[in-house]
Give the backbone structure.
Amino acid sequence: MIRKEVQAIMNYKLTTTTENEEQKGLLGSAFKKMLPLMADEKKNIIVAFFAIFINSGLTLSGPLILGYAVDHYVQTKQFTGVLLFAGLLLLVYLLAFGANYIQMKTMGGVGQRVLYKLRNLVFTKLQELPVAFFNQNKAGDLISRINNDTDKLNQFFSQSLMQFAGNFFVILGAAIFMLAVNVRLGFVTLLPAMALLVFTQLITSWVKRKNLESLQAEGKMSAEIQESLDNFRVIIAFNRRDYFQEKFKKANQENFHSSVWAGLANGIFSPLYDFAGNVAQLIILSYGIYLVVHGNLAIGLLIGFFLYSSRFYDPLRQVASLWSSLQIALAAWERVSEILSLESDLKVIVHERKEGVASRNKLMEFRNVHFRYPEGKEVLHNINFSLEKGKTYAFVGPTGGGKTTTASLLARLYDPTDGTILLDGKDIRSYSPEERTKKIGFILQEPFLVTGSVRDNIVYGNAEYVAFTDKDLENVFKEKHLENLLARFEHGLETKVSGNADSISLGQRQIIAFMRAILRNPELLILDEATANIDTITEQQLEEILRNLPKETTKVIIAHRLNTIENADEIFFVNSGEIKEAGSMEHAVDMLLHGKRQS
Amino acid sequence: MAAKKQKKSQNSIFSLIKVYKGLIFLMVILAVVGNGLNLLIPNIISHGIDTYTTGNFLFKPLVVEFSFAAFFIFLLTYLQGVVQAYASERIARDLRKDIISKISRQNYAYIQSTTTSKLLTNLTSDIDAVKQFISLAIANIASSLFLIIGTSVLLLLINWKLALVVLTILPLIGGTFYVVFSKMGILFKKSQEVIDRLNKIINESVLGSALIRVLNSQQTEYQKFIVANTEAKNLGIQTLILFASIIPIIIFISNATNVAVLALGGHFVITGQMTLGNFTAFITYISIFIFPIIMIGFMSSIIGRAVASYKRISEVLFVEEPKESGSTDTRLRGDVDAVNISVTFDQKPVLKDVSFSVKAGTKTAILGPTAAGKTQLLYVLTGLLEPNSGKVVYDGKAINEYKQKALYEQIGFVFQDSILFNLSIRENIAFSTTVTNESLQKAIDTAELGDFIDQLPSKLDTFASERGTSLSGGQKQRIMLARALALNPKVLLLDDFTARVDTSTEQKILQNINKNYPGITLISVTQKIASVEKFDQIILLMEGEVLAKGTHKELMKTSPEYVQIFDSQRSTSNYEL
């Protein structure tokens, strides 16, 4: 069961279009999904609701007090009463001020914390997902999802949600009030609002789709920008500044187009709600006068009705603009939750039994392993080999033969599409990431540095050394014979490096990656052309360091320089997705020179 | 956008309004007229009621009048919405285009120092802020101002004494804005800078995703992210508190006018200085008067953010461009000279007084240990990196006397790390626009890519993803070579090309180059002596200095360091695969 699940090839490609979109249960389900984000904000939300309730109540009572004062004191010319009510009014506004402040601060806080949590959540999810995910999605689009889309949700939470709720109370209150004062007039006054309700229901999904299209286009554009900026060297050196502009122009134009549409869709609500408000007034005027003429309504009440109707329709107009911000938020949520709903297919499985303890010396074993990348051809066919503890293995073969892929499987960057990989006699999938990465060190073909110092990079991801002082670290370096390598950096551990800049050459990056891996003391150390750009003299030092590693350390070396592999205990020849034992070095050379070669 | 000769003082967001005056004028006019018509509605109603009470009530003209007004309001506000959406998006689009074309005229050093993460924020989040300003703030403020002025006049006409009392709130509110605005600017600037950092962290965690998984360092990445995100949250909350104070204050001040009107107006009515009808009208207009003031309050955060963001954008937009180098665009012969080149990074010398000379059609190797400055030297040779002193000379003319375009059409540069675009293999190789079908084919053949491409599902039209997944290191490297060769270059610069290509392929490729590109000047940075033994010149670079130069034979005699390197490779060099 588990095995099936794990071995199905996961497609991590995020959608960047709006096709195949379900429209069911639009509001409810989306809200339900967002609910966990607000779980520990319950108290704040209750406070905010309370504040908004008070605020709307007070705001609503303002005109009432005003009207009452006019009717009872101004008209009857009792100035003390007027003053008394003016004082009351001031008190009401003061209280409203306090409630308003509390409401905005609380709800804004909720928005900010939800944004914070959501961004953390998405970023954590990214960290949980396997390498395959990153091969299929673009950095710029992911950035757009984590930064922009979450902010759209924040805007809704902090600014719109409460206004939504607040206005809802006001609207409801005004409606009940109108119906209570005069059922017939109240009812006809509400007719345009009902028409609006129907209309809104009808076009909402269209509006949301337009907003989603606009966000997708923005993500695409951001991906385009990120790619071009990251590769700016090539753009300059190949005279393709125009490529950057052209490529961007297209994305920009698409974004423009879909954003204008989103703008038009969002902009339809306000004028329409305005219009409905005006129609309502017309209805009140005509029907009201009709009622007055027939003696069913006092003229004073009619005047009051205009006020109440604007108490109803003014907040409704606000809801109109909030409604579109809700649609934006829902579209943004769709893009964010798409990442959140992905599951890593590299799950840790529960291991039932040791699979045939063939040899206590066997560190790793490939059993009938097949592999293909998502949407690709099979690149490894039925691979079987095993690695013994303490031995050095060389993987040789032409480029594109499957060496790096094999190494990636050893380190469980991917799972085989079929077959099993055993680590210490147990399925590699049964190890937790901590256990596994502690056992297996992998120096990647393209070393990556995090922005910071050499020290940051060397202790990166290494819990053991993070807290070490520079002095302690130096001792460790001596112990591992790494001090000569470190001396190559102008300011030693404090030399500044950055993730993508070229102030540091590939060779230097490889040296840092090498030191980083050695310090981790892995049981299996994989070097994937890890020294390809390092000069041969330094390389000899590296070999010396490798030789001085503990006896039990198993080494897998991928290289095409024979000097780096001449000390190998065993040589595997990797070609066209097959791995053969080469036996001796001469045999390996022979295979390389005469064997079937692809690419 | 007419951003040609903008002065510093014009770098404010309001300068945009000038550029798009037509659109913005239309938007404002629609908003103002629409809202002006809105003012008519209460008039029509009160007129209707008045005529009813005086007995000459005519139903039909009232309805017609009202319907017309309502319809026009609808039409105008909808049109306003359309213009708003169009104007804001168009301005955003144009601004992006301007930024991009500005960036694309910049040199490589500029991109590095500005950082891609900031530029990305400029093009997305900052532009968004400006867009919001255009679409929400301008029309809203214009019509708000119009409403405020309009109702002020009406209030003054009804009862100037009472009106003056009401109007005293305007300077009060103005003062509040001023105080808050001065604090908000810095917060918004910081907020955008945190976004830059978030961008960077996310981007690095994507680029380094494999390493992170190999080291199980997700937690470290998460820590980094959480620090920046926490700062974003704190800044957000600070901004929020300001905003949560300003809005209630404004609402309170505005509402307080009602109190004044009730007390004072009530007094006027009681003392007979004002009719009850006027008093009622006054109260109605007050509510119309208050609404736009509150509206402006809500706009304040949009304005604050936009001002901060536009400032960031204009830093990119109005920065001085590197001057177009020279005018020479002749065909190169291929002589390359490095004259006393020195490069320093953070006070650390990387290249020290490097000089050498390469004759057209010859082959030169630059050899040296890791961190000797070889890559930097190649960057200087292509003009990607500006030396602190010294110059690069092609055919006797300094590199900056050449038109950059003309030069780059003739120099092929193969970078050390593989950079693939999200394009088909064909477009990745024929990346320069000057590439013809023949030169493409010749490049593919020379780079020994034919067999590899043939077995791809859609041959040359197969897509290579951003980070070149599922292509091997050697394949990517050869695509990079083909890209450079497809230019039909006179000078070919290889940065450690041999590192990921096996020796037999490498030998074939070198032979192919000799055969297919006769007369090409080749400068190759490498570690392997074996592959460059027959080169016309080998330059030994160590710690940024030229230690020795000459042919292999000469160096074997004169340079002990060279011999040492040679020895380190000799034992197995014949076996290199």
Summary: The mean pLDDT of chain A is 80. Chain A touches chain B through 184 residues (CB under 8 Å). Chain A is about 60% helix and 10% strand. The domain at 389-415+428-594 of chain A is CATH 3.40.50.300 (Rossmann fold).
